[in-house]
Specification:
TIM Barrel; eight-stranded parallel barrel; 11 helices; alpha/beta; 36% helix
Length: 286
């Protein structure tokens, strides 16, 4: 089955229901290495998944939802309950994209066995195709443990938000020779451990290009290079929902401005008693 539930279009506002189509698979994404660029965006709700699905190859239910949806200061407080709830919603709202769900901080680092228990819960409760976890060489044994037990994994190296306290901030990575060497080693270890793709975030462009050429799995860039095998952005960032966005984000719209203008119109009509009008009210039948 492509989803764990079917949306009832007669009772749900999450319409129109997309036409069922063949969902992409993990092997299909792997085969895109060096080919057509992979389009990936974050999604956190069923309706947003419906809107993004026809245009994307992968949807990431990112732990960025902690900041985007819940207003938390970082991703560190995100729980497995949150990821499972939002992950299931995104799977229900999509038919085409490979859905991958972030493993939240503290749910996988302690041991491969702990990671398997967490990932198995995510997969069972959401119907997603795989999980994503942060970390390089240190997490390679865990990635191998998961993939050998049937759980597809996307790696995440470079700027890893869950390690922001250790990194000292959100600045670009790979500016020193030592850090470049470490990130290259991380990329190689993650790929060799069996990750079917790896997200490379916030690294200097020459390093991103070198990683893309070096590893056999697709490299998904975010703040990296157009030469990567694909790109991912936080949907709310690229739609212009926030005043502040990372340097590497291109705003494709000003949704915040458009929403504010629409709400201002609504407020004006309510205060002027122009809404609701006859078209929005129920009149006696004659």
């Amino acid at each position: 089955m492509s989803t764990t539930f079917t949306i009832d279009t007669a009772t749900s506002r999450a319409t129109p229901t997309p036409q069922p189509m063949r969902r992409l698979t993990v092997p299909a994404i792997q085969a895109r290495k060096g080919g057509d660029p992979i389009v990936m965006l974050t999604a956190y709700t069923a309706r947003m998944a419906q809107l993004l699905d026809p245009h994307c190859d992968m949807l990431l239910v990112g732990d960025s939802l902690g900041q985007v949806i819940y207003g938390l200061p970082s991703t560190l407080s995100v729980t497995l309950d949150m990821m499972c709830a939002h992950g299931a919603a995104v799977v229900r709202g999509s038919y085409h994209s490979v859905v991958v769900i972030d493993m939240p901080f503290g749910s996988y680092e302690a041991s491969p066995e702990r990671a398997f228990a967490s990932a198995a819960r995510v997969m069972a409760e959401t119907g997603a195709a795989g999980v994503k976890l942060e970390g390089g060489e240190a997490m390679a044994p865990t990635i191998a443990f998961l993939t050998q037990r049937g759980i597809p994994v996307v790696g995440h190296i470079g700027l890893t938000p869950q390690a922001v306290n250790a990194l000292g901030g959100y600045g670009a990575r790979g500016r020193s020779d030592a850090e470049q060497a470490k990130i290259l080693a991380d990329a190689k270890a993650v790929a060799q451990a069996g990750a079917f793709a790896v997200v490379v975030e916030g690294v200097i462009e020459p390093l991103a290009v070198e990683i893309t050429r070096m590893v056999s799995c697709p490299v998904i860039g975010i703040g990296a290079s157009a030469q990567c095998d694909g790109q991912v952005l936080v949907i709310d960032d690229m739609l212009g929902m926030f005043e502040r966005t990372p340097r590497f984000v291109k705003k494709y719209d000003d949704m915040a401005g458009r929403i504010s203008a629409a709400v201002a119109d609504y407020a004006s009509e309510v205060r002027g008693r122009a809404f609701p009008g006859r078209e929005q009210t129920y009149q006696p039948k004659r």
